[in-house]
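User: Can you help me understand a structure? I only have the sequence.
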Amino acid sequence: MLHMLRNAVATLLALISFVTLPAVAHARLQCVTYARQISDVQISGNARDWWSNAEASYERGQEPRPGAVLAFRGTHAMPYGHVAVVRQVVDARHILIDHANWSGPGAVDRGVVAVDVSAAGDWSEVRVWYAPTKSVGLRASPTHGFIYPRTVTAKAESTPSAG
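Assistant: Let's start by predicting it. Here is the structure, written out as tokens:
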């Protein structure tokens, strides 16, 4: 009987602590949250919507650049799409990316390879390193392209003073 009482009290305490913790403590790190944290691209919405949401605010293109966000299309396998931040351009077909929630729920992968496997060489289809298999994944994933962070350049504009 004492054993059952201890179990009931332990269960009750666990439930109380779970309910009183903020919702953020229960959430897993998502790709969009991570991309916003580590990049200068600040877009809201599901990853599948970032490409269209970027249209009025950010330049977009098919060329990888460090700091750019690679926007994946939503598919049957990834209905909400995916986003990853370019860490380094290795060559015309290989980049290193940082992203979350790819190799496992909430997992962060840093400096992993993404390979352009598109027929046109335009980064419209990629294969990405998948930690559980320790290799690039077998599935090619369609992308929209790259969203480039805004670059702010300070220009000193001075007018000569009359005198």
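Now, to help you interpret it: The beta strands are 59-61, 69-72, 82-91, 94-100, 108-116, 125-130, 135-136, 141-148. Helices lie at 2-20, 23-26, 31-38, 50-54. Let me know which part you'd like to focus on.
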